[in-house]
Structures are given as structure tokens and as C-alpha cells.
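Review form for a predicted model. The reviewer records the input and the model, then writes brief findings.
Reviewer: anonymous (R2)
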Amino acid sequence: EVQLVGSGGGSVQPGGSTRLSCATTGFSFRRADMYWVRQAPGKGPEWISGISSGGEITNYADTVKGRFTISRDNAKNTLYLQMNSLKPDDTAVYYCNAHLVFGDYWGQGTQVTIAS
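Model under review:
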């Protein structure tokens, strides 16, 4: 069974940092491209970052470029998102996503709230 379990986040002050993790089981993580998607209150989903299976290629949405860093540890089957210089507009539920040959799988979502 494919499982993605997100953790981290919480309430952070503007300008602060936090790191999200996504622990995975049930598929060959080292062969999967991985993504982070977020959904802010009242808005649709927004793709924010992706990383290739080996970690060599990363991509970011313009809204987070230069502030967020995606990474992965294939030995631990875990995906990360380091989030710096956080803004109130970054408030959202963050989902990790595995795009596999046999389907798309999602974590349960991790709330990140940016507030003073």
C-alpha cells in the first residue's frame, strides 16, 4: 500500500522558517519524481515545487523561488521542503505528491499558518 505521511509546519511568524517532511512507503521512492502542492483558504491547488527521482533537477513556482528548497533522502524514502522568509500568503495546507506509473498519490496535508 502506498502511503505518504506529511509532518512539520504549524504556526510560524512572518519572516520565519520551517521544514516539512513527507515519509513514504509502499513504492520505489528512489525512482519517483516528487512534488509539493499547496492549497490556501478559498483558493485552488497550487503546484509549488518538484524534484527528479535522483534529486538532480528541481523546479519551483515563481511565488516560492528563492525562499523554498525541495530535497529528498532516497535512503530514508523521505521528501523535504525547507521554507524560509515566510509570508502570510504562504498560509496553506501543504501536500506531498508522488506521480507514479500506476497513479497519483497524496499525503494527508500539513497546515502551515503564517501569523504574528
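Findings: The mean pLDDT is 96.
Further findings: The chain has no helices and eleven strands.
Recommendation: see findings above.
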